[in-house]
Amino acid sequence: MTRVAAIDCGTNSIRLLIADFDGDRATDVSRRMEIVRLGQGVDATGRLAPEAIERTRAALSAYKSEIDEAGVTAVRMVATSATRDAANAADFHDMVLATLGSEPEVVSGEEEARLSFAGAVRGLDAEPPFLVVDIGGGSTEFVLGDNAGVSSAISVDIGCVRMTERHLHSDPPELDELAAATADIGKAVDHALTVVPGTQARTLVGLAGSVTTVTAIALGLTSYQSERIHRARVSKEEVALVTAGLAEMTHDQRAGIGVMHPGRVDVIVAGALILRTIMEKTGLSTVLASEHDILDGIALSLLR
């Protein structure tokens, strides 16, 4: 039995997975997520805000305590979109080294995509080829592959935080804001599909909080139930209906949705727009939501 810890620090959240591996079989010991909004303002300023770094430090410090108590044998922390973009990434690096005792790996968008794919399709009972889309805060990864591995991958800068900060300023968003966001997203998705031929996929697998939240709403859940959401399928029509409904709500109305994490209230409209656009552009009729993602891929990488 091998116990490992994986940390994924993205633009919106920082997450921890502690898992036991018995050969190739994994058992979760702990999964945690904190919304820290590390990428606050990065799209506009090109820098990580000091208060965002401090929020991340506080969450990471708690994770470090849990890791030490669990007695893990290996730790890997991956940092993604926000720290790739920031001019002061060294401040983040120094904070992580002081807090965690090991360095963060600021991976490329392509490596992020491959880790997400590995975590998402492991043990997946669905028809390949798979198009895995990981809708993050700063970027979205597109990966095409099958059970043998990845055939193509790309990361594009259309995350839910980035699109919200760039376009969606009213409460609820104005029609022209939604149109501008949709056009921006559409251009990026079109570009991604010239590199990753997603129309060849038989199964669309959606990762991260925007997808799981839209799925939970489509399923009519009144509270977040991971076991109901994981590997649930939602149709293109249902995604469009949920997206339209969210776009018409005020911030307070979205906050009142039982499945909505408080840290996702202000960015869920952009996340839903990204998912809706991907489904429209690829022509795939359903999305399979997965709770297994880059965290699982990071943990798997520690066995190599």
From TrEMBL:
Gene3D superfamilies: 3.30.420.40, Exopolyphosphatase. Domain 2 (3.30.420.150). Residues 18-302 form the Ppx/GppA phosphatase N-terminal domain. Transmembrane segments: none annotated. PANTHER family: EXOPOLYPHOSPHATASE, EXOPOLYPHOSPHATASE 2. This is Exopolyphosphatase.
